[in-house]
Queue: 4 jobs
Job 1
Amino acid sequence: MVDYVAFLRGINVGGVTVKMDKLKKSFEALGFTGVKTLLTSGNVLFAAPAAGESTLVSKIEKKLAADFGREIGVLVRKVEELRRLAEAEPFGAIKLMPQTRRYVTFLSEKSKGSLKIPYATPDNHFRIIRANDREVCSVATLSEGGRTVDLMSMLEKEYGRKVTTRNWNTIEKILQASRAA
């Protein structure tokens, strides 16, 4: 069995509500074990026989569409891959302040991004510090009136709509929960 995490796109925002207990039951009905939901943003830890990500994504998306009556985008990563990302300390050089937000955007397909990395907006309030074919690590320094929604739109424009972004704190919570399982 391999430990995975599924990141669901666009749930519990904009009026699209998915209850975590029902989400857990959907994953269990697929035969996955050790299913645990984290937060309400659509993070699901589960164990399954080793399989390709695309196979798991297809299986999960079909089940969720049947159970919730709408398409829900899913990205899957092995927990071990998240551990390696954390061990690489992608935000280690970032000076953290109360208005600092660290994000990881997971990509579903090879990036077609054209930005030269590292990248920073002219005001230096948003920086992409690392990008590869699997994820993009970015930092936002929120200013008066600054909104993370604008930053997410910029990431989708650059890397495509089949991405999902999580705050680094969420990734740390997922890794803590995976150790406790």
Job 2
Amino acid sequence: MKWFLLATAALLFVAPTVVFGEDSPSVTVYHLPSMDLRGGEDAHIYATVFDDWTTDAAYLAYRAIGAGEFQEVQFKRASAADFVAIVPAHAVQPPGIEYYVGSRNDGAQRLHYASPDAPHTVVVLGETTETREALRLARHNGMRSTFELSGEYANYGRRAVDSFETESNTDWMWASTLQYRYRLLRTLYEIAFGVGVIRGHQDTYLDADGARTTADPVTDLGDGREPGMNYGWGQVTWEAHRNFSTDLRLLLGASATGFAAGLGGTLRIGRIAGTNLELGGEAFQDIGSLAFMRFSWDTLPRLPMALSYELTTRPNPAAPPANRLIYELGFDITPAMRVTGRAGYTLRSAAVQSGALGALQLAYSF
């Protein structure tokens, strides 16, 4: 009675046999279908194969739901009665896979469970490396590479020097950069390389004798040379969690006084390509340091925005630090192209008059 009930239950899961070719194999396959699988792990799908020596192969054909061609794996003996077909982990991805079971012998085929036109669907549960990468890629509209070209001009206004005041429009800088990003979208999220140019002016004042004097002269600069740097950098970005990531930058350059090196880093809370808060800074020989806090948000479609505060001595490391408050507005012309404008307010320590800055950036992704 027990064996009769087991055989009857098994037959409920056996699809009607469909035969292709004149000579069909005599093998019989009983299969209890899988209902769900764990994503990113090998899927072991079992069947009972009777008279397996009468056929060349019993197989399982699988694919992602509704996508691509079916791939085959053969059933191998797992025990005296059971056979197993193993679907590799890289193919076991959410939302699921679909499969059918068949056998072949001398060119003839028999379908034992489901079929290519009506495969059995299995839900795949959980998050995998591949699904996380797909989600990250979607943040960037499916594009892994980006070129960014930017330019900036800043005027720091006037400030007090002892009992004097610096002259108007003598404390300024401009900068231009070109950067390339490539997104690996794993824990090592992104790598970037870039080149840049910074040029500035040492502000001056009229002393008691009416002579024009440099307020905070840069060491070793003379003969009319101005502070500045031609430089390049490399950067890596790690995403430890979807809402926590870090950047690390190495900067190398040449100024009017010689070779220079620097380091920079960023701590980011929130999604990389979304709403986030960044805290970071850079220290660079010969042109000074930079510390910043930046809040970005993307609540309006195609109009990303940001507000940032910076404290910097650039381009003159001998000058007192300057405060910079910057508002940023971008516009996605297309999914691949973005233009971003920045406008800001600048103010050095002991300032008697504030200044302003403006910047423009063009980004193209592919």
Job 3
Amino acid sequence: MPSVRISKDFNQDIYFLTMTVARWYYLFDRHHRWHILADSLAYCREHKGLKLYGFVFILNHIHVIVQSPDVSGFVRDFKRFTSGEFRKNLIKNEPTVLKLFLDQKGNYEFWQKTNMPKCIGLESFFQNKLTYMHNNPVRKNYVMKPEDWYWSSANELCELKVDEL
């Protein structure tokens, strides 16, 4: 099945994206891996024109609502950079886990290929996706309320901040 792609005609629009760890492996909850994600998004906001309108980090995937001068370039660069950082983190902290991310040819693949991009054109669709992602930790029974999950734009205390729409 081919991967859904971000249309070059709508590359500067607002997108809801889901980036998932290969094999759905639970990886983010240890060894400061949440910070790798947060720091990379913060860097893209400061240096690459990324607008971050919402996010949630779960144990094996993240949801973001973003806009950028080049959304597909953001996805490519974000995945490439975080893959390298996670690889270094695994080598240092859990070297036996690294083999789970090798493909049949021995190449390292941290992220699944698809990002499930959904172009957001209507405010109602934006709100629907924001609510969906904020409720993800609740549906997983990690917390009782969306604002209780630290790594979420629903939590005002989270160190990663979002942009005004």
Job 4
Amino acid sequence: MDFTTAIKTCLKLRYFDFQGRARRSEYWWFFLFNFLVSLVLGWIPIIGLLITLGLLIPGIAVTVRRLHDTGRTGWWLLAPLGIAIVGALITWPIIASGQEPSILLGIIGLAYLGVSIMLLVWFCQRGTVGPNAWGPDPYDPAGDVEAVFS
């Protein structure tokens, strides 16, 4: 999938589609598009905010489909957010009591970094070969050939 096809797929065809699978190329081309648009238009206060909000849903959708392609649930996308929330809930009472939670913050930071690296590795992996729980292999649009001839 090339750059323009990935953008068209994410913005026109599958804007709110959290089902199915997304190839690596679809995900990374849209990631690059999203990054470049945010970099260029992020300096314009209102327009940049509106564009960023407009790209948020298709960005999440293609990320969930990318996780599906690797055989994982899209809920993994919330893992860094979960670590941040749990970390805040744990450290808030310590900070409120006047103590310094530096070691605890380091552990939470390492957990956040570890989960983020894990997600990055999954985004870079080739998807599962053949159909999985989220649909047919996007590299084999004809479907499961073995099932046809068995």
